[in-house]
Amino acid sequence: MCLDPRPLPDSFTVEDVNDTAKETCLNWFFKIASIRELLPRLYVEAAILKCNRFLSKSGIQETLPRLTAMIRGMGDPLVAAYARAYLCRVGMEVAPHLKESLNANVFDLLATFRQISGDSVQKQLHMQKVEVPAYLTLYSPAINWILQCVAYRAPEQLLTEMMERCKMMANNALLLNSIMRAFRPEFVATRATDFIGMIKDCDESGFPKHLLYGSLGRSLACADPPESERLTILNEAWKVITKVRNPQDYMNCAEIWVEFTCRHFTKREVNTVLADIIKHMTPDRAFEEAYPQLQSVIRKILTYFHDFSVLFSMERFLPFLDMFQKDSVRVEVCKSIMEVFIKHQLELTRDPVILNAMLHICKTMHDSVNALTLEDEKRSLALLIIGFIRMVSFGRDFEQQLSFCVEARATFCNLEPVLVQLIHTVNQLAMETRMVMKGNHSRKTAAFVRACAAYCFITIPSLSSIFSRLHLYLLSGQVALANQCLSQADAFLKAAVSVLPEVSRSISVEGKLRSSESFLLDYINNFLATLLVVPDHPEHGVLYLVRGLLNMVQDYTWEDNSDAKVRVYISALPLLAAMSQETYLYSIPKMDSNETLYGGDPKFLSEINKLCETLIGQILDHLKTLTRDESVRRQSALAFSLFGVLLAHGDLRNNKLSQLSINLWNLSHKHGHCETRIRTLESIRHQAQRPDMAHLSDTIQRLALQSRT
């Protein structure tokens, strides 16, 4: 006898097994056969059923019927049921093609059902004080598993056969319940009327009928019964469900049938179901113990009803929401409604039914915010409310839209992103009014856009984020300018200048502190671009807003070793150069800028020149301080930036200015930190070819000479 250490392949045959392994395996089975007690002998042999492959090709096929027959010797029907369930499980694992043993186990199980009503079982239940319905539920897992094994890929005819056998049995409710759970929903749905007839004939005392209807409802939620039978099915099921007294049992069953109702019927039937749920769950505040099921009802309704005008026209929908008394649950339900609304409400709406209901839901979410609410939760709620606000439109009725924004501001005052969205909405409203009037406001529309500006001016100070305030002050000022609201625009821009000193030197970005300089520089550049079209106030001095902004920049506490202030000064020079032109680069239709107010007045130009000289002096003074080795790179960059501004906006026919530009060019290349700007030289050379720019020829020669040294 030889020993082969090589492992057997998965698809081995008896011929591949050596004699030692066969002898060992046979010895195991002989030892198992010597176990006197039936139950342990059965379980141990079933556990190593697969080992029959070592002994013969047909070992498993011969053993399964024998083990099935052995179970008939067990006196306790409950123990026998679970023994059959285990045998079916093992059989499906080692030989899923052998359906005969599965069917034999099912039919044996049916035969033992008579024992349940026998004297021995009833005496045991009486001694242990166990009610029959509770005892019957102990069978469910075993029966469900056995029937699932039988129903797996089974033909529809098998269900018909099982139903016929079930009809011939007494106390068949438990089996009927498992049949409906085990077979494919499509098979069950086509026979829904037959199942209802069988449920009616069941004994109520043995197994509650509402559980049977629950199992039927689960199948009908996945597959559709014949259309002509649907209303009858719903009526028959709900007759039983509505009589269930225990709120938890009622809710477990009603939750299942809500989906069938939503899937096949209109708001009328769904409203009736909701009314019945409210009727059952309101007494003694039973709804407090059924929040998961009630939430499931809401989810199922939202799955099938995406038209919110239909949804909110159900009389009992909002009263149904009122049952969610626990704050956290109520907010979750409101969030789920809002998510579906934002996803499926494709058209803008002004429907008062929708607006009133959604305002109520959004207010519920907003009012849940307190000092302990996490920022992520606030952000999530704000996004949902913003999604609703964006879907509201009253068309050309702009006054009604503004009234809605006023109401929303009062309702959602604790969520800053919502207030920001409302300000954007009102600014957009003002611009839409301008577009409708084609820039020619009537007395009525002029008053309306001023009201929009007032709304924004009142709302912006309530924002805690200084960056939001700055951005919205400037944006609202630009909108006011576009609508010829000069005093309002002036107020917005002055407010922005007054807020700028409050900006901290560092800001938190994703939990990390970052310098705020880049934001300030971008913002001030945008602000400067706006100031070109802002006319001076008659009661203030020339360029008062420009001077106010530059004074703020002068007084602001910038970071140590920062060039930000000087960069602002360099950025202000193109603005001043543009203001000195007879015709501005851009303007706002129907609004006079400084080009019209001053008309090239020498005093105005003199003020601009003085301011430019002051700024250039400040810049040059700063460049003189950047002489250390660690600062020369910054000096080079700033010098070249100022050179570019003088080249683009300065009159280089002025010898003094021309010499300054050459000095700046030389300074930018002095320490070798600035590559020779070949393209810059080519650009200047190209400009010098124009008749009005011939004076650049001398400059380009001097720059080129310096670049070669």
Automatic annotation (TrEMBL):
InterPro entries: VPS35L. The keyword Magnesium does not apply. One of its GO terms (cellular component) is endosome. Its main location: other. The keyword Lipid biosynthesis does not apply. Keywords: Endosome, Protein transport, Transport. GO terms for biological process: endocytic recycling; protein transport. It is found in: Endosome. PANTHER family: ESOPHAGEAL CANCER ASSOCIATED PROTEIN (PTHR13673), VPS35 ENDOSOMAL PROTEIN-SORTING FACTOR-LIKE (PTHR13673:SF0). Belongs to the VPS35L family. This is VPS35 endosomal protein-sorting factor-like.
